[in-house]
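user: Here is a favour to ask of a fellow structure person. I have my own habits and do not want them to colour yours. Could you put it straight underneath, so I can go through it closely?

assistant:
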Amino acid sequence: MRHQASLIDRLRMERQQLNRADRAVADAVLEDIEAATRISIKELASRAKVSEPTVIRFSRRMGCDGFSDFKIRLAQDYAIGRMYIAAERTSPAETGREVADQVYEATSQALASAFAQRDPAALEKAAELIHRGRRIFCFGVGGSSANVALEAENRFFRLDIAVSATADSYKHRVIASTADPQDVLLIFSVTGKPRSLVDSAEIAVELGASVVAVTDPTSPLAAKANVVVPLVAFDEEKFFYMPNRGRYGQLFVLDCLATLVGAWRRNAVAKKLWRARSNLVSLHGNTDSQPVGD
């Protein structure tokens, strides 16, 4: 069963896909979420400049039984989480305590958002392709996506998978052009728009290879992929010098994929991992609880 995102998350994620009237209702709610939990259907319809039946239909489209149920769920989400609705900082954090609080909050929000968007069926399809693929190529460009692609190589090679990673846009096209039906491209992209990634996905699919995209499900990259693991990585942080928190969502998805593949391959790789650990003892001595190669 697919788990739904919170109502507030869903409003944000689906807003662009709504028709004009429904988008007007969503905007009216998101403009003042706290007020929307208390106002009448008549007042919300007035704010959105739509009819009351439109508000009822919108509530049902959002998975609620009606407007009353919509307001209850909205109030619950507002009370439970501070994601995207907490007051923005008006000045940058400058002390150790403030920075720790701010970074922790940003990290928590990114992980909570990724968890809310999780699609178990897509994760299983993606993991199955990686598990059975002859070669796995991990692509990403820019900051977090390129680093996560490298981390994917690090996770999968120890599971006895032929895997490599690159952030080179020329290599993306070359690799895609030499792929065959047994190969898999695992592509990470927050926006799903970089030309080299979109073009490479299209080339690889045309040649019969499989493309797994961890990206915005409405993006150009998602449209080219065989399997889309949805991840809308909101980043509303106005202090540009802070690290991009979207990478925590990408790492969450990668951990899910690596854990699934590892579970399926554990019997086949157990002896090899034990042998690897034994050969590492000479580097640092015996550490029973230490991860392999860490």
